[in-house]
Amino acid sequence: MVSEEMVRAALKNVIDPEIGLDIVNLGLVYRIDVVEEGAKVDIDMTLTTPACPAGPQILDQARREVMALADVYKDLEDVKINLVWTPFWNPSLMSEEARDELGFF
C-alpha cells in the first residue's frame, strides 16, 4: 500500500524549473492524504505565486510522479492535486535546506 512518505518522496522528484529546488523542500506541498486503503491520494499544494508560468508543468509532473507509484503498488488508482492559495506561500515555508540553498537566513 502507498504511504504518505512514499508520496512525499515521489514529489521530491518534481523540481520548480524557475528556482531549481523540489516542491517538497520549497514548502509547496501542504497536505497528503492516502485514502481508501491506498487506492487514492489527495494532495493540497500551492505555487510560489498565482502567476507562476511553470504552474501547469509542476502540477502535471506532480501527478505523474505520484501515479508512477502504481507501477509497484497496483492498488493505487487515482491521484488528485488540489491547487490551494491558503495559506499563501512565503519563504518561511521552505525547509532549512532550501533556505540555505537559496541564501535565505
Automatic annotation (TrEMBL):
InterPro entries: Fe-S_Maturation_MIP18 (IPR052339), FSCA_dom_sf (IPR034904), MIP18-like (IPR002744). It comes from the Bacteria. Residues 4-71 form the MIP18 family-like domain. Gene3D superfamilies: Fe-S cluster assembly (FSCA) (3.30.300.130). This is MIP18 family-like domain-containing protein.
